[in-house]
Prior knowledge:
- With 126 residues, the protein is an alpha+beta fold.
- The protein has helices at residues 7-15, 18-32, 64-69, 85-98, 118-125; strands at 34-40, 43-44, 47-48, 56-60, 79-84, 102-105, 114-116.
- The protein has a four-stranded mixed β-sheet.
- Strand 6 and strand 7 form a beta hairpin.
Amino acid sequence: xxxxxxxxxxxxxxxxxGDQRYRYFVSKVLDFEEVWTLxxxxxFVLFATDEDGRCRCLPFWPHPDHAxxxxxxxxxxxxPERIDLKSFQANWLPGMKRDHLKVAVFPTLLGTSIILEPExxxxxLS
Length: 126
């Protein structure tokens, strides 16, 4: 059973400056040993941060409520998908590095997120 965030914590996390939102993400992921992404009928969401599509990112959130908040517009048919921390560290991050994908930590409706290399997040979660 997944506990829903109260509105105050949900809102507070979204308004944190980028560096603090990143620390919040790492802390919650380590506490609950899981990360969340969005998955739709065609698979996991992926987006580009540049016009030519060379900087491709997979988004991750610390809680399904934050992920669900972005399941709108082009991601409207997506649902939060849980990834346990061990699998994230052993499979996802190395696979993202191999595939030249970046990590988008905690994207918000305002279009902000922390973009980093998978190995950076791996180090911070160790």
